[in-house]
Design brief:
Elements lengths: L3 H4 L8 E2 L4 E4 L5 H17 L14 E6 L5 H14 L3 E7 L2 H11 L3 E4 L8 E8 L2 E2 L2 H19 L28 H11 L11 E7 L6 H8 L3 E7 L13 H18 L4 E5 L6 E8 L5 E6 L1 H12 L3 E5 L5 H7 L5 E4 L3 H13 L5 E4 L5 E3 L3 E3 L2 E3 L2 E5 L1 H14 L3 H6 L5 E8 L3 H11 L9 E4 L3 E5 L5 E6 L6 H13 L9 E5 L4 E5 L3 E7 L5 E8 L2 H8 L14 H10 L1
Parallel strand pairs: 3-4, 3-5, 8-9, 8-10, 13-14, 13-15
Antiparallel strand pairs: 1-2, 2-6, 5-6, 6-7, 10-11, 11-12, 15-16, 16-19, 17-18, 20-27, 21-22, 21-24, 22-23, 24-25, 25-26, 26-27
Helix pairs in contact: 2-3, 2-5, 4-6, 6-7, 9-12, 14-17
Length: 579
């Protein structure tokens, strides 16, 4: 008997978990790998009572599946559906649908679900995001899922090639290829009703909104929701070809293109209040405020996701907030004045969801979280406009968009005016693409000043190095001349060599190593470097008291800074550390 593994004409690569979900190169996401991933995930769910809340017979359980608009997504979805069916369940195909709409519907049904999406990562990549019947797959689930996937892969790869579903290329054999099931609109209707129930038909009256469609999967559904809430929506920029937009790291080119769309819409339709869009799978919002100036021109302003979340949270009224460590420090400053605690987490929705769960266990009842990309999560039911919206503990783009627009209407202020009322912290983020992840991780590891998972913060005083945990409690303190502090002082010196006085930085006073390296300087500036969890990219987040300075830290200023190639600070840092 010839095994399938012996007949393959390529070397199979098993996809791995990224920041949230499984991501890999499309060429590695063969039908074989997607099938094994889905089947292994289902077996893990079955073994841990995570497949369905209500007791149902296996053949009556319908597992919802949806995908984004990437050209590779339909094939990956077919492999996902086939694995669900082979496992004995029915697959409910929801079509091309926003990730939060799928998750919201599946949670209501009390069943696990699968979303095929690469979100905002490059076109040559894609992925799959599974949800348990209670919500997203957590980091604590990943090892168990991988173990089950490995068992399935071993069984299939060691099976007879002539009896296998798969050919020598890891694709379904011609006689095993199946079409996707008929599309159900149940999730779309449920998502529409979710927002119609709390945002009435006149909530956004008198607002004229440009919706940038491009290739976002929510480009048909989300404008309907805005229109249902009373806004005049002008859809522009639809693309037949998929291209990704990272709402957390918008390039200057993308911003310029969006600003031109605003100008075009204004010339044709009159006053524009905002441009709205999302990332590829429509779980991250993109909001650009449009301000009319005194000389009859306009000033478009991108609202970063972390500040958008701040504005939304102020509108909702909550008692518990969790945000990733990469977020704008204005969040901490603003809510400290209101005596509302803000929990910092590692980057990725599983971590902020875990923080919300901990907050719920402490007795909080109005619980939210959001990420620096603007994806908004609710850990409890919330009252909005005399109605109640159910908790949705996954990234959502629609809730923050609706809330910030409605807040603008209620306050009779423009989005720009609301933005100007926040603490004066300005941010900018960008990334180096095709930066080897192994290099990024090695650099971060060597510069992490304390290789102890309990240590989160290293604070540098004139004569002491103080170590703190994630709750900012002091763990230890050493003299700067001591052996215990030597590696930390060395890391400080390397970072100050690159983030130097020559480039406008102050003295490095603190490093937070919760996720990447977040460097605090005594001139009220922050530079945060972190490898992407989903792609070979090295990210930099910068915060300063002026927008120009934040921009300079990240990209191009008077001197070579940030992501400039080939001599930007990130490259310099990598060369110093890795050589």
């Amino acid at each position: 008997m010839k095994k399938l593994s012996e007949s393959l004409v390529y070397t199979p690569v098993q996809p791995g978990f990224g920041t949230s979900g499984v991501r890999a190169l499309v060429e590695d996401l063969t039908d074989l790998e997607v099938y094994c991933l889905t089947l292994g995930t289902l077996r893990y769910f079955e073994n841990n009572d995570l497949l369905t809340i209500a007791g149902k017979s296996k053949d009556t359980i319908r597992i919802p599946v949806a995908c984004d608009l990437r050209p590779s997504s339909p094939r990956l979805t077919r492999a996902t559906v086939r694995a669900i069916q082979e496992c004995g369940y029915q697959a409910e195909y929801l079509g091309m649908l926003p990730t939060p709409a799928l998750t919201c519907y599946a949670l209501k049904q009390g069943v696990a679900s699968f979303m095929v999406t690469g979100s905002h990562i490059p076109l040559d990549r894609n992925g799959q995001k599974a949800n348990r019947c209670y919500g997203e797959v957590m980091k604590s689930d990943e090892q168990g899922i991988v173990s089950e996937v490995n068992k399935v892969r071993d069984m299939i790869l060691n099976g007879a090639a002539d009896q296998s579903l798969f050919d020598q290329h890891g694709m379904f054999k011609a006689d095993q290829t199946q079409s996707l099931p008929e599309t159900s609109d149940a999730a779309e209707q449920h998502y529409l009703q979710r927002y119609a129930s709390v945002f009435p038909a006149d909530a956004l009256a008198d607002l004229r909104i440009v919706f940038f469609e491009y290739s976002a999967v929510g480009r048909d559904l989300l404008p309907k929701i805005l229109s249902n809430a009373g806004a005049e929506v002008i859809c522009m920029g639809r693309s037949d070809e998929f291209f990704p937009i990272d709402t957390e790291a918008l390039s200057d080119q993308h911003l310029d293109e969006l600003f031109q769309i605003v100008l075009e819409a204004r010339a044709k339709h009159g006053k524009i209040d905002a441009l709205i869009s999302t990332d590829g799978d429509s779980d991250r919002p993109l909001v650009i405020a449009v301000e009319e100036t005194t000389n009859a021109s306009i000033l478009p302003r991108f609202i970063s996701g972390d500040l958008l979340g701040l504005m939304v949270t102020d509108y909702l009224g909550v008692d518990s907030i969790s945000v990733p460590i990469s977020s704008n420090p204005a969040i901490q400053e603003y809510f400290a004045s209101k005596k509302i605690p803000v929990q910092s987490t590692r980057i990725g929705s599983p971590y902020v969801i875990e923080a919300m769960q901990q907050s719920h266990a402490k007795g909080n009842s109005h619980i939210v979280a959001w990420e620096a990309n603007g994806g908004y999560l609710t850990g409890s039911d919330l009252s909005i406009n005399s109605g109640v919206i159910e908790a949705l503990p996954t990234r959502d783009a629609m809730l923050p968009i609706l809330c910030v627009l409605h807040a603008s209407v209620q306050k009779q202020q423009s989005l720009s005016q609301m933005l100007d009322a926040l603490p004066a912290w300005y941010g900018k983020a960008d990334l180096l693409d095709k930066f080897p992840r192994q290099t990024s991780l090695a650099m971060i590891e060597q510069l992490t000043p304390a290789h102890d998972s309990t240590i989160c913060v290293v604070q540098f005083e004139s004569e002491q190095v103080i170590l703190r945990d994630a709750d900012n409690q002091v763990i230890a303190q050493y003299s700067v001349d001591s052996d215990e502090a030597s590696s930390m002082v060395k890391a400080k010196g390397v970072l100050e060599t690159v983030f130097s006085e020559q480039h406008g930085f102050g003295l490095l006073t603190q490093i937070n190593c919760l996720d990447g390296l977040r460097c605090y300087f005594d001139n009220n500036e922050i530079a945060h470097i972190r490898p992407s969890g989903n792609a070979p990219q090295l990210r930099i987040y910068a915060y300063a008291r002026t927008q120009n300075r934040a921009n300079d830290i990240v990209s191009l200023g008077i001197v070579s800074l940030g992501i400039e190639e080939p001599a930007g600070l990130l490259r310099q840092l990598a060369e110093i550390v890795i050589k």
